[in-house]
Amino acid sequence: MIRILMTIGLLLLSLPAAAETMVLAPHYNAIGKNPDGSKYSGTVDIVVISDTTFSIVWHIGGSIYKGFGMRRNESLAATYTIGGEPGLVIYESDRKGGFSGLWAVRGEDGSGSEVLIPAK
Questions:
Q1: What does pTM read for this prediction?
Q2: Rounded mean pLDDT, 59-84
């Protein structure tokens, strides 16, 4: 009996743990740097659509940018439009609820950076 219990225990330990779904906060404070080095700040709202997709809205300097994103493991990617051109941002989780990312706009040189901090 003990041998059976030990075998079951070893089997359970060898099974991969179920992946936890990344939790996205509905509101973040954003701090970023444009490709030219200038800084900006604002807020970001996220609405989860499914276990892999979300809508995202940035409120930066009186402007509103709307996007659509996908999440996978510890990363987020989202598209948006700025000045009529498509853009892309890719964020990595800081494992504390926030994200650090890089973004670019089609046709523009360089990339910007942005940190999302959950709003309280």
A1: 0.81
A2: 96
